[in-house]
Amino acid sequence: MVQVTRVPEIAYDCDVLVIGGGIVGLSTAYAITRAAPGTRVTVLEKEPGPARHQTGRNSGVIHSGIYYRPGSLKARYAVRGAAEMVKFCAEYGIPHAVTGKLIVATDRAELPRLHALVQRGRENGIPVRELGGSQIAEYEPEVRGLAAIHVGTTGICDFVAVARQLAHGSGAEIRYGTRVVRIDRRPERGVAVLTAAGDVVRGRMMVNCAGLYSDEIARLTGDDPDVRIVPFRGEYFELARPELVRGLVYPVPDPAFPFLGVHLTRGIDGGVHVGPNAVPALAREGYEWGTVRARELGSTLAWPGSWRIARRHWRYGAGELRRSLSKGAFTEAVRRLLRGVRGRPGADGGGGPGPGGTA
């Protein structure tokens, strides 16, 4: 005789459980509830509020998509996403502006790369205007270069305000101060998440939007992604004379390196941020040199990929480290774009960058 055991029904707290309350997690919750009204979504965020890390610690730029390979998902989503972000900000009264930006070549070796960006931008459907050296002043009178391009759809916004509106508009349950410590995932039973407070939250499915800890969350589910988060910190200064810059000014990026270089960004608040550089962080949320988390640093150093990055980019990394430790070196990098900047380590000189935050 065959016995049939009935599996007890599970009481789910939600249909979809989202881990992470930054802009990716909150956008996910917002999109799900808009696409499928009535879906119960719960967002778990370890911090006491939204947008405490990458979302709230960046240049505040709505990127156009000019850097991405035509036809790629990145290119398509960046172009579409920029338009949707501007529309979202306008609809909800979030501070924003479509400023456009200049990408400036200051060396002849950069001219072929600048021309390649023109072609890439046009293939991606982005309005791009080529400028000779004398035309740069039409947009930025204080900026000097051999040539430049103006990208019309780049903008700026308050991403923290965007995140708050996404949280409010999603209708999701947002649980702040909720750190995930264990995950039990079974195909027929959904996901059960144990929090640091000892609570268990059950969902039919889970979406990992945990940002700097997304690889660790993935491993908690039983997956073993062959990737690691290698943390880098970007440091900013504030320009003491913001009137020198009208909008956004970028150098021509070198495709050999995964960074855009030190640039100038006029923010929503009217201040001009200079940066960021890119230096290794000694913790995943290490916003200062003094923030060290031994376990995280040990994990980074033990992963072979970290050493591959170091070997491949050691010259570039040495320059970034120098700019982190020397304000004069940082100012020197800015002066390639903005000749009126003055300064020396340890002092604010005229239009030189003053003390700023890190992000």
Radius of gyration: 23 Å
The coarse overall form would be: globular
Largest sheet: 8 strands, mixed
Quaternary organisation: single chain
DSSP helix fraction: 25-40%
User: Stretches where pLDDT falls below 50 for ≥5 residues?
Assistant: 344-359
Strand order of the largest sheet: 6-7-5-15-16-17-14-21
Task: Quote the average pLDDT.
Answer: 91
Structural class comes to alpha+beta
Number of E strands: 21
Number of helices: 9
Order of helices and strands: EHEEHEEHEEEHEEEEHEEEEEEHHHHEEE
Beginning-to-end CA distance, first to last residue: 66 Å
Q: Strand percentage, roughly? A: 15-25%
Organism: Streptomyces afghaniensis 772
InterPro entries: FAD-dep_OxRdtase, FAD/NAD-bd_sf
Protein name: Putative L-2-hydroxyglutarate oxidase LhgO
Keywords: FAD, Flavoprotein, Oxidoreductase
Molecular structure report:
With 359 residues, the protein is α+β, with helices and mostly antiparallel strands. Among the domains are: 14-56 and 161-220, FAD/NAD(P)-binding domain; 232-247 and 255-359, no CATH class. It contains 9 helices and 21 strands. The chain has helices spanning 23-35, 73-92, 111-123, 159-170, 214-220, 294-302, 304-312, 314-325, 327-335, and strands spanning 14-19, 41-44, 61-62, 96-97, 101-105, 128-132, 147-151, 155-157, 173-175, 180-186, 190-195, 200-208, 232-233, 237-239, 248-251, 263-266, 272-275, 279-280, 341-344, 347-350, 353-354. It has an 8-stranded mixed sheet. Strands 9-2-1-12-11-10 form a 6-stranded mixed sheet. It is globular and about 75 Å long. Residues 344-359 have low confidence and may be disordered. This is Putative L-2-hydroxyglutarate oxidase LhgO. Belongs to the L2HGDH family. GO terms for molecular function: (S)-2-hydroxyglutarate dehydrogenase activity. Its cofactor is FAD. It comes from Streptomyces afghaniensis 772.
